[in-house]
């Protein structure tokens, strides 16, 4: 639940300020604390001891490929609709994805949240 609230606040924080330094601060805090800790913890809890490295490598590969795809799609949205709309749509996508993930995570007995 806290992750969904965090995603909402993170996404809409870009719409609330025009100060570039605040945006850089938010992105730095996000990348330092969220990215390395949460997915690796999730992988370590849900994979056996034998497959922890494999799970982490698959996560790193998926993150890299998704960053490339997101960059290409984001560029098209930015060119067609502008920067503010890009972050609005990406915030909504993150919110919907987070809600779907939360529902699926709570319905599966084999997956542990942490």
TrEMBL record:
Coiled-coil features, chain-numbered ranges: none
Domain of life, source organism: Bacteria
Keyword Transmembrane helix: yes
Record SUPFAM superfamilies: MFS general substrate transporter
Keywords for the protein's UniProt record, in alphabetical order: Membrane, Transmembrane, Transmembrane helix
Residues annotated as transmembrane: 20-37, 58-78, 84-104
Protein name as annotated: Major facilitator superfamily (MFS) profile domain-containing protein
Protein source organism: Orenia metallireducens
């Amino acid at each position: 639940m806290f992750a969904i609230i965090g995603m909402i606040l993170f996404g809409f924080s870009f719409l609330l300020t025009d100060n570039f330094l605040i945006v850089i601060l938010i992105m730095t805090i996000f990348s330092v604390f969220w990215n390395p800790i949460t997915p690796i913890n999730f992988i370590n809890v849900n994979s056996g001891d034998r497959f922890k490295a494999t799970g982490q490598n698959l996560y790193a590969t998926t993150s890299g490929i998704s960053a490339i795809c997101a960059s290409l799609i984001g560029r098209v949205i930015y060119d067609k609709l502008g920067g503010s709309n890009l972050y609005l749509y990406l915030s909504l996508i993150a919110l919907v994805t987070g809600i779907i993930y939360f529902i699926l995570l709570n319905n599966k007995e084999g997956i542990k949240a942490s």
